[in-house]
Amino acid sequence: VQELGREGILPFSRFWASNKPFNAPLAGLFEHWLICIIVMLAPPPGDAYNFLLNLISYPLAIINVFVAGGLVHLYLNRSAWNWNPPFSASLPVVIFFLLSNIYLVVAPFVPPPTP
């Protein structure tokens, strides 16, 4: 949200782009907090809430597959990209993250066994 404000895409761009008063993106953090509260409190319990959580979780798993795949690519081609971060996750952790998110993306398409 802060970067969208800095680029002038959002209305009230100066508000969203600011780092005041704590040298942190308070407006963006508040917006994220507000949306999380609405997602938790607005839908009725039961199927509607479960549907909403599934609707949010699936695109996140797809994005995580691409992020983890990019990290594996960087690990395997470290010298080509001149990539030496001061802190990084180990390759087995990144591969586990990649495989677990691939499972989350593929599992909804596997039909349940018929009794």
Structure description:
GO terms for molecular function: L-amino acid transmembrane transporter activity. This protein has 115 residues and is mainly alpha-helical. The chain has two domains: 1-42, no CATH class; 44-107, no CATH class. 66% of the residues lie in helices and 0% in strands. It has six helices and no strands. It has helices spanning 2-6, 13-17, 26-41, 47-76, 78-81, 91-106. Helix 4 runs antiparallel to helix 6 (91-106).
List the helices and strands and how they pair.
Elements: H1 2-6, H2 13-17, H3 26-41, H4 47-76, H5 78-81, H6 91-106
Average of the residue pLDDT scores: 86
Low-confidence stretches: none
**What is the radius of gyration?**
19 Å
In DSSP terms (H or I, runs of 4 or more residues), the helix count works out at: 6
The succession of helices and strands, N to C, reads HHHHHH
Helix content: 55-70%
* Main sheet specs: none
Label the overall shape: flat
DSSP summary, beta strand count: 0
How would you classify the helix and strand content by structural class?
mainly alpha
Could you tell me the strand content as a percent range? Answer: under 5%
